[in-house]
Amino acid sequence: MAFDFDTLTNRLESDSIRWDSALDKGVLPLWVADMDFKSPPCVIDALNERVQQGIYGYTHTPHQMNRMIADYLQEQYQWSVDPDWIVILPSVVSGLYTAVQQLTNIGDGVLVPNPVYHHLRLACTTANRSTQDMPLVLREGRWVLPNDQLPEIVNAKTKLALLCNPQNPGSTVFTRDELKEFGNFCTQNHLWICSDEIHAGLVLAEDRKHIPLASISKEISEKTVTLMSLNKTFNFPGVGLAWAIAENPVLRKAIQVGLHQTIAPPSLFAYTATMAAIKEGEPWRKALIEYLRKNRDLIQERIGSVAGLSLDRMEGSYLAWIDCTALQNQNPHQLLLDAGLATSPGSQFGKEQFVRLNFGTQRSRLNDALDIIQKTCS
């Protein structure tokens, strides 16, 4: 089946965080990480069918949901998960905040990668926990874990390590050896781990596959809460749903604190969309990956021709992490914004001289964005 990713979609006046900010400003907004493609037809059809039922009462998790997720993880990642290990959540972000609050105490330290998706750091500062910077190292175009530096970073106060795999914003898809070394270090030093794996379904590098950290060994699994969702892969974050996986019952109990009390459960539409994606979404996902790979290749070609800019390998997701250091401009985000392109500022992720570009969009729009970048930065 052929899927259309090229036809422009109109998201203006749709209450889109990203696009409504562009109204009347003449700005192309490629920042917040959602895509400009329609969700898969199977998801749209399932939601339409649910809407036509006309009754939207209180709901519970469908009885088959955890088994469906477990089967999906086995199929996609060859990860054997007991359905009882799965806790349904409204979002990965709520899981991050809960993990930090429940697995640490005030005065404890939390290992946080740098650069990284800003909510990993905010989950710590909001809970009044101290963060311990874990600076990723750019090696052969990949932002890799500083495994050899961890003994100097960790101290007696460190209780929790946060991980983002595939990495956001750096796009690295960590290898089994990289993850094993990191996981073993954490278990040997009695650290809990919370692994954000929301981009697992968006591996672009042909020589990489997503490996869940907790799948590597029982010892690592016993120390790890894995957070996953299909929101990013199938582009329905506005109705989305997530789940936590924890083999250790202590971790399962911790991640459920506040559920159905201060943390609302997912909506019935979230269950509908997620189940449809699991059952019938794979052909669309594969077509999406091929489209994003071509977008990635286009970015590498065109950004590579600008002397003041450089890129990593873009192994996963649809986010280009662009190094603007050689431009010698104090605020590259503002430079591009003034030229008509809204990116995410690098400061949001811990690196002032970078910008993050969302290339989950139609190729014509991406070319417009690259025109602005080349004209402004050349």
Instruction: Tell me how many strands there are.
Output: 15
Helix content: 25-40%
Quaternary structure state of the chains depicted: single chain
From the helix content, strand content and strand pairing, which structural class follows? alpha/beta
Overall morphology? globular
**Between the first and last Cα atoms, what is the distance in angstroms?**
41 Å
Biggest sheet descriptor: 7 strands, mixed
Radius of gyration: 20 Å
The neighbouring-strand order within the major sheet is 2-10-9-8-7-3-4
How much strand? 15-25%
Low-confidence runs of at least 5 consecutive residues: none
The pLDDT mean sits at: 97
> How many DSSP helices?
13
H/E element order: HEHHEHEHEEEHEHEHEEHHHEEHEEEH
Walk me through the structure.
With 378 residues, the chain is an alpha/beta fold. Helix content is 36%, strand content 16%. The protein contains 13 helices and 15 strands. The strands form four sheets. The protein has a seven-stranded mixed sheet with strand order 2-10-9-8-7-3-4, with helices on both faces. The protein has a four-stranded antiparallel sheet with strand order 11-12-15-14, covered by helices on one side. The protein has a two-stranded parallel ribbon with strand order 1-13. Helix 2 runs antiparallel to helix 10 and helix 3 runs parallel beside helix 10. The longest helix has 22 residues. The termini are far apart. The mean pLDDT is 97.
